[in-house]
Design brief:
3 helices, 172 residues, 5-stranded antiparallel sheet, Alpha-Beta Plaits, 12 strands, alpha+beta
């Protein structure tokens, strides 16, 4: 059921409760694990004025680094608003080695993806800055007014569409 080896795991939690769950994990579990909620920096227009805001990169997920034993698994699952660990039919899924490179960048620099320039819908791009640096994807749509691009990438063994600031991607 649980591998029991040290690595990165994805914990699915109630949406909009990521920060609350992270604090509860830190209080209940302590520094036995490292917790990460990846974020992105975006430019939004509110009240006629442009401002920079920070949003969650993967809403509903907290990334956990440590040794998930059966005991830790059930202790973490008892935390309110925790839904489940990402898993296959048999065990909790450890984040893939290729994706760990991205996580290492995320952990080393910051937990926030910064802004960039975008090209056009359908372009194959590479993330050139921030914690997702090195990931490749395809632009699904562009919101020039907001300075954002929706990009389809592979992450956590699933194809995900993430919204990034247009300053962190470059055409391949």
């Amino acid at each position: 059921m649980v591998k029991g080896s040290s690595g990165w795991y994805a914990l699915f939690v109630q949406s909009q409760q990521e920060e609350k769950v992270k604090k509860m994990l830190e209080l209940e579990i302590g520094d036995e694990f490292q917790y990460l909620i990846p974020k992105r920096k975006l430019r939004e227009r509110k009240g006629g004025k442009w401002q920079f805001v920070t949003r969650r990169l993967f809403p509903g997920y907290i990334l956990i680094h440590g040794n998930i034993t059966v005991d830790w698994y059930y202790r973490i699952k008892r935390i309110p608003d925790v839904i489940k660990f990402l898993r296959d039919d048999e065990e909790v899924l450890q984040i893939d080695e290729r994706e760990l490179k991205v996580l290492n960048i995320l952990v080393d620099k910051s937990d926030t993806v910064e802004m960039s320039t975008v090209y056009k819908q359908g372009d194959t791009i590479q993330v050139i800055d921030g914690p997702l640096q090195g990931l490749e994807g395809r632009i699904v749509s562009i919101n020039r007014r907001k300075g954002r691009a929706k990009v389809r990438i592979n992450f956590l063994n699933q194809e995900k569409v993430v919204e990034l600031g247009v300053n962190v991607v470059d055409k391949i």
